[in-house]
Amino acid sequence: MSGPIVLEPLDLAALLCSHVCHDLISPTGAIVNGLEVLDEAKDEETKTFAHELIKKSAATASARLQFCRIAFGAAGSAGAQIDLSDSETVARGFVEDGKTKLVWNLPRTLMPKNRVKLLLNMLVVAGHAIPRGGMLTVEPIGAGESMTFRITATGLNARVPQSAPGLLAGEPAEQTVDAHAIQPFYTGLLARSCGLAVTFAAEGDAVVITAQ
Question: Does some domain include residue 2?
């Protein structure tokens, strides 16, 4: 019987940094491109296009940074609590992009930091189940500080990502954890730190990810 995946702390930190940088490269590069176009623009139409590109890309970069600060960063002192309404704001900025809609059915309440981090990371993993876009619906399981989460992903060809269940469970040891796989693996680590397990399941045309 194979054992759990073991990842050195420095490797975990490096892979998470790579993952965050990957999320920021696209909008940051678009800002640079917009500035270059603006420098070379000779007509108002081109200048307007460049301004819009810079504005949109800067907003995307800011939204992703705010999301990553909570989902991957310290986000306050040890034992801190985070308002779920604030989490909804950063989640919408990260998830909703014209292709994907977020339905947030959680109450406004304070929750332990790691549970909120788990929720945000579950959203990212759930998004991988609908690569063409669709809808992510977040619902509570239970109430209070012990509340957990159920996220339903619906969209064209929704499917459970092939390696995600094993990475979420942190096994088998032979599973390769690279910059792409670090997301579900880290989500599993967060779940276990909260005394929970995250599972994926196909339910009809939807995919459900649950923390219990």
Answer: no
Closest C-alpha to 120, from 91, 162, 149, 83: 91
Going by their DSSP bridges, the two strands 134-141 and 100-104 should be labelled as: parallel
Which whole-number Å values give the CA distances from 115 to 54, 68, 149, in the listed order?
34, 15, 9
pLDDT tens for each residue of 98-154: 899 999 999 999 999 999 999 999 999 999 999 999 999 999 999 887 899 999 999
Q: Please check whether residue 100 is in contact with residue 135, taking contact to mean a CB–CB distance below 8 angstroms.
A: yes
Give yes or no for a contact between 127 and 164, defined as CB atoms under 8 angstroms apart: no
Ramachandran area for residue 158 (φ above 0: left; ψ -120 to 50: alpha; else beta) = beta
130, 166 Cβ separation under 8 angstroms: no
Domain containing residue 47: 9-211
Q: Which residues contact 14 (CB under 8 A, 6 or more apart)?
A: none
Q: pTM (2 decimals)?
A: 0.90
Q: Which residue has the higher pLDDT, 158 or 80?
A: 158
Let me know: does 179 contact 15? Beta carbons within 8 Å: yes
Is 1 contained in some domain?
no
What does the pLDDT read at residue 144? 82
Query: Does any domain span residue 118?
Result: yes
| Alpha carbon distance, N-terminus to C-terminus of the chain | 25
Q: Which residues contact 92 (CB under 8 A, 6 or more apart)?
A: 102, 104
Q: Which amino acid is at 192?
A: R
